[in-house]
Amino acid sequence: MESCKSKNNLSPEERDRWVLQLYDQLLELEQRLIPTGLHVLGRPTTQRETADLLLMIASFDRPEHGARALNDLIAEGLRLSSYESILRQSSVNTEKLDERERVEAIASQSISEFLKNGITAAVEFLQRHANVTPDRAKPVFLLLERVAKQLETNNEMEAVSRALRGEYIEPGPGADIVQNPLILPTGRNTHAINPYSIPSAVAFNRAERTAADLLDRYLKEHGRYPRAMALVLWGLDNIKTQGEGVAQALWLLGVRPLRDSLNRVTEVQPIPLEELARPRIDVVMTVSGIFRDLFSPTVQLLDKAVRLIAQLEEPPELNYLRQHVLQEIHESCDFDEAATRVFSNAPGNYGTNVNFMVIDSQWECEDTLGDLFVTRKCFAYGRDSQGRSVEGREARVAMDRALTRVDLTYQNIDTFEIGITDVDHYFEYLGGVSKAVEKRSHSRPSIYLSDALSRNSKIRSLQETVNLETRTKTLNPKWYEGMLSHGFRGVAEIENHVSNTFGWSATADAVDDWVYTEVARTFILDELMLERLRSLNPHSARSLVARLLEAHGRGYWIVDPEILEKLREIGVALEDQLEGVA
Ligand code: BEZ
Ligand code: MG
Question: Are 248 and 340 in contact (CB under 8 A)?
Fold first, then answer.
């Protein structure tokens, strides 16, 4: 955000708009769901967590339960415009913002009423405050009642004991709880989905808007569409969303999945350019080892889509993939090599190792991180022009060449439980591929993430996402106190977050100075907090200080010399404590 001083010269209208945007950002921080503390096997969710989860679950249509989205029902009952349009306009229009707050407050109060006094009371509440008829409200609360009961109990301890005895554990679907509450009760043997069923129709519909928003954002910032982009696809995410990431890739290429007589998605069909109303994007897909193993038919589908699009007789300026493939054939190689776009690890191999290199500080030059990504991920999958299966053929030159043209890198986030600083996998993948692109294309790509967690799904730049995670998690007392209540392990989690944040400096230079400064102030320079960390887990406290010093040492953090000096002193004291000198 710009400084307040520059706002003094604004016209009253501009200032109002700016204040509204600021308010919208604060609302986003406030409303973000975050996990508070680690999951403890066998322990059910707290009342507060249950209320938040139910509200989120109720915010989506559940046709399989005959339930409409609660916010839609309320907006309709109040005779406002659709909640969807209220949401879209609420960051630029005060009236819409008021409407949004009114709808959301009623939704939240109805959930509280439900938890306190049951279904009938909640249904009456909605009728009284929003004219929602009981026949419309009741299915929502019947679903919530079932979910609430299942949240109170779980089979986790029993299932772990059974697993240890080698006994049968009942299976259950793997998904995000908000996307599919049928995952409850927990403590079952998670199964995936039939890979031939993805992308589901719902996933394909949702992906249309996400892909369009992504391209719009790039267009707004650069005045043109991205010509080529690198997309990260993970297995677990596509299980949880029934293939939203896959569907986004198909939309970007401009193809529709087709089902055969057995209802399996085995073919694709080009969406005509007139319907698409934009160019087809060249999409380089880097898929995880888990995705490759779980979604073998989908890997084939994606490769088929690329080959189909590359061969369409369309103007190259409206089909960037074809344009690039023709260019490559002309310059140096055959069609099969030029149209290779689906890459993963060598068969039997997993991960990029970029995370290990960063966390262990085993690197000098950042280019090494991108090169390692390519070394691990340059194995091609699909089928060649003769119809022969390609199962992990080393294709380093093809990958290098494909990345040379990339100007946008992207990954979809699909759950509120795990964000880009919770684990090291986001920076090893999205960061790794971005760094690889930077060297090969001679410029840093624009890096975006989509956040399909809520109705108000959004495209954010990497930097915006790092800021959001920092404010809602790492620096949020609700988050870190939740972690600290776990003692030793909690301090390790805080330190992990800072290291994962550092991973975004190393791979993408996406962390602002204030992030490290506030981390230092909150956890190290605050004497009381430092003492808590030190007594709970001096090893992680020492690593945290070392990571901050490394951030400075590698040029990612410009810091006040006094803070630096203090950190160094504390670092030495922690070393001494651990070596028993103090
Ligand atoms: C996956 O589901 O593909 C995945 C999970 C964790 C790390 C990387 C990939
Ligand atoms: Mg910087």
Answer: no
pLDDT digits (tens, 9 = 90+) for 121-148: 999 999 999 999 999 999 999 999 999 9
Nearest ligand for residue 559 CA: 2
pLDDT, residue 90, reads 84
What rounded mean pLDDT belongs to the chain? Answer: 93
pLDDT at 146: 94
Cα Rg for the chain, rounded, in angstroms?
25
Bridge partners, residue 383, by sequence: 389
Helix (H) or strand (E) holding 528: helix 527-536
| Closest by CA position to 38, among listed 417, 465, 426 | 417
Residue 459's H or E segment, with its range, is strand 458-461
Taking the C-alpha atoms of residue 141 and residue 115, their distance in angstroms, rounded to an integer, is 10
The atom of ligand 1 lying closest to the CA of 287 is 3
Ligand 1 mean position, distance from CA 413 (Å): 12
CA 455, CA 58: separation in Å to the nearest integer? Answer: 11
For 534, what's the count of Cα atoms within 13 Å in the CB-facing half-sphere?
Answer: 17
Distance of alpha carbon 428 from the chain centroid: 14
Upper half-sphere CA count for residue 151 (Cβ side, 13 Å): 21
Ligand with minimal distance to 554 CA: 2
pLDDT for residue 255: 98
Contact 186, 154 (CB under 8 A): yes
Question: In the numeric block, which tokens belong to residue 235?
Answer: 């297995």
CA 382 to each of CA 22, 389, 394: distance values in angstroms, whole numbers, following the listed order = 47, 6, 12
Q: Is the model's pLDDT at 258 over the cut of 60? A: yes
Average pLDDT for residues 549-577, to the nearest whole number?
97
- Structure confidence by residue, pLDDT tens digits, 480-491: 999 999 999 999
pLDDT digits (tens, 9 = 90+) for 382-430: 999 999 999 999 999 999 999 999 999 999 998 777 899 999 999 999 9
Q: Atom 8 (ligand 1): residue with closest C-alpha?
A: 425
Centre of ligand 2 from the C-alpha of residue 555, in Å: 7
Residue 424: per-residue pLDDT: 97
CA distance 459 to 64: 28
Ligand at minimal distance from the CA of 428 is 1
**Each residue of 503-559: pLDDT tens digit?**
999 999 999 999 999 999 999 999 999 999 999 999 999 999 999 999 999 999 999
3-state secondary structure 103-131: HHHHHHHHHHHHHHHCHHHHHHHHHHHHC
Ligand 1 close to Cβ of residue 291 (< 6 A): yes
Angle between helical axes of 70-77 and 94-117 (0-180°, round to 10): 120
Write down the pTM of the prediction: 0.89
